[in-house]
Amino acid sequence: MKYDVAVIGGGPAGLAAAIKASLSGASVILIEREARLGGILKQCIHDGFGVVRFGEKLSGPEYADRFIKQLRQTNVQVSLFSFVTSTVQDGDLYKITYVCKDGVQHVECDNIILATGCRERTRNGIFIHGDRCAGVYTAGAAQNLVNILGAVPGKKVVILGSGDIGLIMARRLTLEGAKVVGVYEAKPTPSGLTRNIHQCLNDFDIPLHLSSTVTKVLGTTRLERVEISRVDEQMRPIAGTEQIVDCDCLVLAVGLIPENEIARGLKVPLDPKTKGAIVDQNCQTLRNGIYACGNALHVNDLVDYVSESGETAGGAVQSRDKRVLRKIETEGKLLYVVPQRLDVNAPLDKVVMYFRASEELTDQRLTVTAGDEVVFTKNYAKLLPPEMERVVVNFNKAHTLDDFVVRLEDK
Amino acid sequence: MNFEKIVKQVRKKYKTEVAVREDERSVFLTGECDNWADVVAIGKMFVTEGKHVVNDIRLKGYVEKPERLPKVSDNSLDGTDWDVVVIGGGISGCAVARELTRNKLRVLLVEKHSDVARGASGANNGMVHAGIDLKHQCLKLKYGVAGNAIYGDVCKELGVDFRRSGQYVIFDSRLIRFFAKGTVKRAEKHGIPGVRIVGKKEIAEIEPRVKDFAVGALYAPSTGYVSPYQLTIAYAENAVQNGAKVSLNTAVTALETENGNVTRVKTNRGTVTARCVVNCAGVFADRIADMAGDRYFSIHPRRGTDLMLDPKAQGVPTQTISMGPTLKSVSKFGSGSTKGGGVIRTADGNYLLGPDAVEIPDREDVSTNQDSVNNVFGKHSQVCPTLRRGDIIAYFSGVRAPTYEEDFIIERSAKVANLVHVAGIQSPGITAAPAFAKDVAKIVADYLASVGVEVLPNERFDPVRPRPVKAKYLNDEERDKLIKQDPDFGKIICRCEEISLGEIKRAIHNPLGVATVDGVKRRVRAGMGRCQGGFCMPLVTDIIAKETGVDVTEVTKDDVGSNIVVGKLKEVQQ
């Protein structure tokens, strides 16, 4: 079969991308590796989804359901429990092979939208040493155990990482009768959204210990204890500060990594800062016809923006104009900026840009320039790395479409 | 022999007194030391030709932890009678059990963990050594070379992947290259095929990433790579196929002897009787010997840590390259306590760095630590600076079981007539096991025949253990056909390693009856990839519960007591 677009991944980014591409007249196949659509939203039964987009606080499944219902109104071909095993370029076409319960399937397409989400950093990834016992889980795995399997991973829980998933799981496990001994965070500041610190920790009297990390796990069959150490400014454990905390479960919320196996296979250049693809304002990567969106592009903290980037990609696939790409440089204390390129041959009036500050900052000014011209400025009283910022820039103002720089500086 | 001189040396170097006693087989040491490395070093000083060392020097203030026994107690084995009881389900025990089933014998293998290959056999780098490092005639050399020669055939029979892709031991100086000529000659003498020296230019072409470092290399084409736990599992499964019984979660707690024979084997699952007992107990082999009143050697636990890199890591030497650990000095080559593997491409396509070798007092301490990770990574990134720490996806430790003589002990006990020791099995144990298992089976058969037990060939013996389906490696047509036969093979559960529901179901229903999350992982690699089971662990847990008809709360990671979850929602109380 031949499609205009193959969307890989049926989470919030892929759903939005498939709907938008279909509405723009493209023939679309959506390939999802799990048995149901929705991606990680399926297990996010807490609320807070859709505040930006719908002005409502929905649960994850409710949020996904709105898109799934919309998808059913389109002609998108959905293939579930389908796992992409290879993607190769053949001239202007991409050939995708996937397996599903019906066998090995082959499709051809002009465009691929990568909406493959992200994965969690693991115990080994952050070098927590010690025994090989049960009871050490990533937050997503723990969330799956609780919300999908209906089981409790531990009675006395230590959570490492104050990112949103860690905070949500602290509350969730408390509600299910577990005692959350504490949330430990190696950074000197919390990693999650401020609202989650209040709603998930403070409201439940769960202590947050900053500049501390788990350095060892101990237990013969199941986890019995963890060793906690204070860390220095470089987040290295300080010898002599070790203390032992009894617990039967350690939940790790220590970061997410964009999943880019397929992108790598297609030799799509990645940005070492985002660990996702380098894209233009339409989420098209440096390889023509390959788009990336959602958490595969960069890790978002709100699903609303995941859907937005999916729509951007889905809405752009029908364009046949030749791209003229210019680099967007960054200066100052910016962790990253997406997009990293500007296609000056595409519409430039409403370019959505996402960025994160590299540290906690006050009284900052964001400036976007083209050559010597300032095309956009915005002031920020406070910027936090966990909170992604979004701006819409009109580059049509610029007389010369080159030498683009995004700069963050003291006001 | 007069040990007065050595005792004096110990007094001078280690500031401690050692008492020495000897009998016809062993030298017995007692005393006390302040650190464990000294205990081991002193033990080694007393190694003498033709005798074993039993080292009872204590570490001051150290109380040895009691053996970790399975949290199971029943009578499921009580009163049963066997021709042979094999103690230990590592590569040695499983290979011996399988070789024993070539004869019509009632064979019981007991393993204290919930699966086989849980000790050193499951935590090493899977290198099938050529034997180039071994200088003198010893059992390691005899069985290592013999084992290597039959490895391809054995793995084929047992349906295990094996890749004989050779090993390059890189030299960093011309002097070492000069000395390596002796190694080539020695290899020839020992019957190791094809060993040669490759020049600087050739090695740079084969592996450009070491070009600044290498002035040449020693090439051993017969070195190969196997998944050591999959081979162990395959041996155990084939033994079961051919009539042996494997009893897991079963630990030997005592051996009763009468008139120089083991008469009864006591376990946590009942007491059994046996004509013959084979001690393949790994780090506990000296304890088992002691239980039979036959203590004549000591095991000193030696921990090694390996780091596993993402198979898609960049900057790792290409697949046929591995590097020796002692590149800086030829004098160390072969005399160190580890041959050190190097940078190895495993049979499964991962890259492994390591191992290191650390003497530890606790036989079961497989915990990892920062020092070992740093040492292993530091050493290999010196040779290959393009290695990236961020590509490490997992690391693990195993405890090897060397004797002080650093050679295998494979013999019938001189004191207990029906006890056979297979002890001190360390590197190259994985390589040697297929060869020595055959000899052990012969020792057992000869003994049984000598006491009037009729040993007849097992006519129904089938050496072939079916190779598990690996859907990922099938071509599109074969895979499509398989999925059309059983749609479960089209449903991918483990996304990092591309493992299907069909493969996982088959792994759960294995001949050993191991239905644990790690058991599935060892058999089909679900959970071994980049996400380390973050996505598939809950799914595998659920599949195990459904396939075995138990509640999800009963599913364990590995041993009894390692339950994945502690209860169901609304049932947990603080």
Overall description:
The complex is a heterodimer of chains A (411) and B (574). Chain A is α/β, with parallel strands linked by helices and 411 residues long. Chain A has three domains: 1-120 and 256-320, 3-Layer(bba) Sandwich (FAD/NAD(P)-binding domain); 122-254, FAD/NAD(P)-binding domain (3-Layer(bba) Sandwich), CATH 3.50.50.60; 322-411, Immunoglobulin-like. In chain A, 19% of the residues lie in helices and 38% in strands. In chain A, the strands form seven sheets. In chain A, strands 1, 2, 5, 6, 7, 8 and 21 form a seven-stranded mixed β-sheet that branches. In chain A, strands 11-19-13-14-15 form a five-stranded parallel β-sheet. In chain A, helix 1 (12-23) runs parallel beside helix 8 (303-316) and helix 4 (139-147) runs parallel beside helix 5 (164-175). The N and C termini of chain A lie far apart (56 Å). With 574 residues, chain B is of the alpha+beta class. Chain B has four domains: 4-59, no CATH class; 81-120 and 229-299 and 405-450, FAD/NAD(P)-binding domain (3-Layer(bba) Sandwich), CATH 3.50.50; 127-210 and 217-226 and 300-400, D-Amino Acid Oxidase, subunit A, domain 2 (D-Amino Acid Oxidase, Chain A, domain 2); 471-554, Orthogonal Bundle (Arc Repressor Mutant, subunit A). Chain B has helices at 4-14, 36-45, 91-100, 139-158, 174-189, 200-206, 228-241, 285-291, 370-383, 429-450, 476-485, 501-508, 517-524, 537-548; strands at 18-22, 26-33, 52-59, 81-87, 107-110, 127-128, 162-163, 167-171, 196-199, 216-220, 224-226, 245-247, 252-258, 261-267, 270-279, 302-309, 342-345, 351-354, 358-359, 392-400, 409-412, 419-423, 492-494, 499-500, 567-568. In chain B, strands 4, 5, 12, 13, 14, 15, 21 and 22 form an eight-stranded mixed β-sheet that branches. In chain B, strand 13 and strand 14 (261-267) form a beta hairpin. In chain B, helix 3 packs across helix 10 (429-450), helix 4 packs across helix 10 (429-450) and helix 12 (501-508) crosses helix 13 (517-524). At the A-B interface, strand 7, strand 10, helix 4 and strand 12 of A face strand 20, helix 11, helix 14 and strand 25 of B.
